[in-house]
Amino acid sequence: MQSLANRLALLFLLITLGAMAVVYVGVVPNLESSLVDDRARRLEAAAQRLSAPVREAIDASLPVAILDQRVRQAADQAGARVTLLGIRRSAGTIERFVKSDSNASVDIQALEFPAAMQAIESGRRATATESVADGRVVEAALPLYFTDRQTDRRVLGSVLVYTAPLEDVRANVSLVRTRILIAGLLALLAAVLAGYVVARSFGRRVARLEDVARRVASGDFSARFRVDGNDELGRLAAALKDMQRQLAELDTARRRFIATASHELRTPIFSLGGFLELLEDEDLDDETRERFMAQLHDQVDRLRKLTTDLLDLSRIDAGAIELRREEPDLRALAQTVADEFVPALAEHGSALELALGDDPVEAQCDEERARQIVRVMVDNALAHTDPGTGIAVATEAASGRARVTVTDTGPGIPRAELGRVFEPFYTSDGRRGAGLGLAIARELAERMGGTLTATSVPGRTTFTLDLPRAAPGRPLPGSATETAPIGR
């Protein structure tokens, strides 16, 4: 019973058995009583409809031969045995006797006529059944009254009893019971076969999903989940297919991350080792030594920035970055960042234009992290444009959002590469940097409830930081206290 197919087949079997039991119990036990009641009602109606000639013969005191003839005619028309019972009352007892019988026989002691006794006691029509040697019979008794000439009162003088056998009813019940059992057995067999076929089909589909899932779990991302329907298993296969694709992408990204990080770390380390070996040469002149020392400082700065970026990226992935709930004015924030880049702008030969407006642009964010993002945006504009390229920083507030944009007039980013600029270690033009700044900046923006997007056309590239605008009593996304860890 560990097999899904066997369990589903058993479930079909039990459901069908239950349905058969309900039908059998609900139909067969009540069927016979329903048929008997129906036969009794029809016999009672026939008795009431066909008894008028017999009643007239009794009232007119016609000869016995005529009475017997009319009794037999009533029996023929009703398709039943008709018996006319007379009544004698003596000493408080009631005695019945046969006055006429459609079988032309008075030897009918085997019948007790319970319906006649009920009709005599109640004075109304009555029906009943009784068992005889040949089986059960149903009876309908009709009381017949006459007028007593001495007292001028109507007196019950006789009872006309219609009797019909119930063997056909029992035969019909037996036939129905047999048909129900046969149909139930056939339905049971069909249900078991259909259940087993359906269960095997589902079982094979589940087995295929299990096999592919095991291959994917072992690292074989070439395995594919086959979506072969729109039912629950089909939707499960589609979900697993999406999961497999995402796992493959994550595995590829992980491998690329490790390879790129190793390369980025190895380059400055090898450079440091090479410069240290050169500095050990005592014959170096002061100018060369100073140049080597400057390059050493550059490599150390590069290594420091790379390790810091890697640490930030890993802390973001681990949910260990904390955000403070603050409401800085993005105009002042942009001005501060611009002041930090004065030396770099002078070295690059570029001018930075500020368009900050007159009204405050208060955002709901962590001020230091927002400053870090803007710093990355400006640094990216300097790193990936030619010397002398113009850069503009602007702030604005609209539709409940606070926005900072950094625009440069460089060559732009190719459309095919624009969607990848936020990937870790991706650099579109091979210039300086490990390609982590924008990836970290976008993660920080999203964890503060904002977005970081890029648009580019030849001669113009714009990075936009969009943050929630400050509102009284509104908590920073992801923060329930003054500082809170942010996770994915």
Topology:
Layout: H1 4-50, H2 52-59, H3 64-78, E1 81-90, E2 93-101, H4 114-122, E3 126-132, E4 135-148, E5 153-165, H5 167-217, H6 232-279, H7 286-318, E6 321-324, H8 330-340, H9 342-348, E7 352-355, H10 367-383, E8 391-398, E9 401-408, H11 415-418, H12 437-447, E10 451-457, E11 460-468, E12 483-486
Parallel strand pairs: 7-8
Antiparallel strand pairs: 1-2, 1-5, 3-4, 4-5, 6-12, 8-9, 9-11, 10-11
Helix pairs in contact: 1-5, 2-3, 5-6, 6-7, 7-12, 8-10, 10-12
- The percent range for helix content is 40-55%
Strand content: 15-25%
The CATH topology annotation of the largest domain reads as: Beta-Lactamase
Quaternary organisation: single chain
Indicate the CATH class of the largest domain: Alpha Beta
Number of helices: 12
What is the mean predicted local confidence, pLDDT?
A: 81
Q: What are the segments in which pLDDT stays under 50 over at least 5 consecutive residues?
A: 478-488
Distance between the termini: 42 Å
Structural class: alpha+beta
- Judging from the principal axes of the Cα atoms, what is the shape? rod-shaped
Strand arrangement across the biggest beta sheet: 2-1-5-4-3
What's the main sheet like? 5 strands, antiparallel
CATH superfamily of the largest domain: PAS domain
| Gyration radius, in Å | 52 Å
Number of domains: 3
Please tell me the CATH architecture of the largest domain by its name: 2-Layer Sandwich
Question: What is the element string, with H for helices and E for strands?
Answer: HHHEEHEEEHHHEHHEHEEHHEEE
GO molecular function, one term: phosphorelay sensor kinase activity
Pfam families: HAMP, HATPase_c, HisKA
Organism: freshwater metagenome
Keywords: Kinase, Membrane, Phosphoprotein, Transferase, Transmembrane, Transmembrane helix, Two-component regulatory system
